[in-house]
């Protein structure tokens, strides 16, 4: 995702859209536009130049530009569109454009970059823009649940159709087709074939959002040779979570490629014979995130050779594997519509060293060089009431300091996550969060593990930490 210096233009380039492992792309406003005739059109935004013009993407990138309706009072939103400068004809090309439903912004999708872009108002026939449909993810999610069959969200047998399975990323992705030669009994399965050497071998499996807590179980039959590499990737809250299938292990820590590993499917056998895979997606997700609304599931071969480098895999041209009886279903031990309980530990409004459960709070240090002071401040957040403010110094080697709140005789096994609002005083802060049981066993996690950035944000941000993330040590029942 690339943002202009004035913050009014945004170029969103999806993963695996660039054939090279690393490319520098920028978009910036310019003071002088190309001297091409506007043919009666009026500028409604700054003119932006991009680097590199002519760059081609394997799938559509989206350019969004904020527009201005105030210039002369005569412009109507439907007259606005994004235009790209065509250096071959020295003219501005009208681009199919869609207006945002909730702000003064307009976007267009593209696979090739022009040298310049701008929003213009035009009364010429065939130009202008259309309004975006106002349909939220909650509406889409409801439709999925309403069509679920008994305990199944979906069940693809591939005897009649391929469901939501399809090629992803065009010629660098994989080809999908029904096949009746790969099974023992002649029934149909889905054949997935890599069309070119390398590529990302990508296919869409599930493209409609669903609730992983309501439908956690993923199961499928597979037949895959030992030289074929691919994994499942699940998109949640804009981030990819990788489930290991047959691809080689990746070192993703500090690589900044928007991918988080959440575990491997157990017992995978890659011997070109039929086997069955099964895993609990909800259990995997809650080990790394408190979000449970799955946006999509894909199979792909993505390699990460270095920092901010996401590149195609190395599967041979013609590499093929098969999928059959792909299903996503409920855990029958969990009743439909089951909701986890919520318990407020502290909102700090009382401004006292006792939490809402009656447990005392205190600060602690290493007793040597670490220092910390706790205070309560009102008016610091958009919420009414006070917040806890911690000022500390742990700059010396081996120093530590912290704040602790006691949960009197509380059994956490019926809860799923710990949620808190945080705000850093500067942009280089990291914070550890820990739980300790009555025996003194303690487990800690770094809050940045559950954020997209490397540090705690300097604006108020809600962080959901799954209790499963603490399970390596402390007992939640104590």
Question: How would you portray this structure in words?
Answer:
By secondary structure, the protein is mainly β. The protein folds into three domains: 2-131, Chondroitinase Ac, Chain A, domain 3 (Sandwich), CATH 2.60.220; 138-329, Jelly Rolls, CATH 2.60.120.260; 361-470, no CATH class. 3% of the residues lie in helices and 40% in strands. It has two helices and 35 strands. The strands form nine sheets. Strands 14, 17, 18, 20, 21, 22 and 24 form a seven-stranded mixed beta sheet that branches. The protein has a six-stranded mixed beta sheet with strand order 1-2-6-10-9-12, with no helix packed on it. Strands 3, 4, 5, 7, 8 and 11 form a six-stranded antiparallel beta sheet that branches. The radius of gyration is 26 Å and the shape is globular.
Number of helices: 2
Distance between the termini: 44 Å
CATH topology of the largest domain: Jelly Rolls
Largest sheet: 7 strands, mixed
SSE blueprint:
Elements: E1 2-3, E2 9-12, E3 26-30, E4 42-43, E5 47-51, E6 56-66, E7 80-86, E8 91-94, E9 98-99, E10 105-112, E11 116-121, E12 130-131, H1 137-146, E13 152-156, E14 166-167, E15 174-179, E16 189-194, E17 203-206, E18 210-211, E19 217-223, E20 231-236, E21 239-244, E22 259-264, E23 274-280, H2 281-285, E24 293-300, E25 302-306, E26 309-312, E27 320-329, E28 361-365, E29 371-378, E30 386-393, E31 401-405, E32 417-422, E33 432-436, E34 442-446, E35 461-466
Parallel strand pairs: 9-12, 21-22
Antiparallel strand pairs: 1-2, 2-6, 3-5, 4-11, 5-11, 6-10, 7-8, 7-11, 9-10, 13-27, 14-17, 15-16, 16-27, 17-24, 18-24, 19-23, 19-27, 20-21, 20-24, 25-26, 28-31, 29-30, 32-35, 33-34
